[in-house]
Amino acid sequence: MALCVDLDGTLVKTDTLLEAALASLHRTPYTLVGACLSLYKGLPIFKTQLQTSGCLNVALLPYNEAVLELVRQVRDQGRRTVLITATHRALAVDIANYLGCFDEVYGTSDVINLKGQQKAEFLVKRFGERGFDYIGNSSNDVPVWNAARRGFTVTNCTPTLTNGSAPAPLCECSYRPTLKLLAKTARVHQWSKNILIAVPLLTSHRFTNLALILHCAMAVCALSCIASATYIFNDLFDIDADRLHNSKRFRPIPSATISIVQAMALAAGLAVVGAVLASLTSRASVLLLATYVICSLSYTVYFKRKLLVDVLMLAGLYTLRILIGCAATHIAISFWLLAFSVFVFFSLALIKRVTELAKDDMSGMHLSRGYRPLDREALVGIGTSSALAATVILALYLNSREVQTLYARPEVLWLLCPLLLYWFSRNWVLVLRQKINDDPLVFVFRDRVSQVLSVVVLIIVAAATFAGNLPMDWLHK
Asked: What is the pTM (predicted TM-score) of this model?
């Protein structure tokens, strides 16, 4: 009695056709274009073009361990194990050879698509009616389950069969994403970075204008949705690399906790919501948000593998958030704010890269990013120099006319310089101690010391702004 196993969604927790499409998009985009152009010839030809391109690394696919364990047990008992799938046979053979636990392999060819009723008829012809057990995952497998002696499912799909029974659950695996899973896929925790949009509103002292606050909030929400859409694209584009990463492999898309189709639908929905919200702010903010999308996608596809260019791109994306805040609130960008932002974010971007180099020194991931382990020392020097440059710019700003106009007691603001020096120095020491394991801005929002320093900074700024009636002669003694 043979045990027949489906591939997509059963033996692997994903769709190999979509995986092949993503792999082609990453490695050989022209293969994907050619396969799409061949769709008019039929789905089998499309699968042949895409799944025989050799782009898909079968060793990195997320396999279902419960199914693999059952297949190996059955084979050890002397029963035949069969992999039968609507995936192209060439790819199915590659997967079977990699796993080494199947006696027979059948898949789609140029003339037949082994799916649904055609799969059932093929198995009945090969093993006879009720001559096999079958593991599947979807309603497309109902004809096969009806022809099998026993049916198993790896999802919550338990349809009633012609004999009144239902396929037995093999393992608990739900493909209905929860709100928590969707939030994790969209990286909602990264939305905290978009508070940078409010910086122009705060530094211009116009934070009491309700209309500007509303526009600023809409811009934050718009960028959060659009940024999440780009994060999802990044996870889809880098799915193989993430599966090799020590921590990124646990993300929903690389681990196949959420399907590729669901992730793409989520990205499209977030992009639409973000575009609608952006249209309610200003035309300039829409253009800047479009620029953000272009820069973010180009970073994912190309620039993230270029030495130091990737860091400049990251710093630019951070600075772009401030420019979006200026556009949404119609506040002119200050030269001092722009210069300060560039050096601060360049230093933070280098923190991110140095942190990744420290974590990936054993995996070889740095080689695909244009960096080598010995570059870490140089990056630390550049990053700390950029932090010092940001502090110098702040000091020069404190002696400018703008400060004299905005603040009643500008001399109080000089306390910000040692605080900034301490904050940057501490962060770089923590980087060398490998204590920062996340995006540096996300770390800042979670770090207790940074939170305390933020409160102190607010107190200093408030004192410089509203302490005009207090005697400050002691500062000059």
From this structure: 0.85
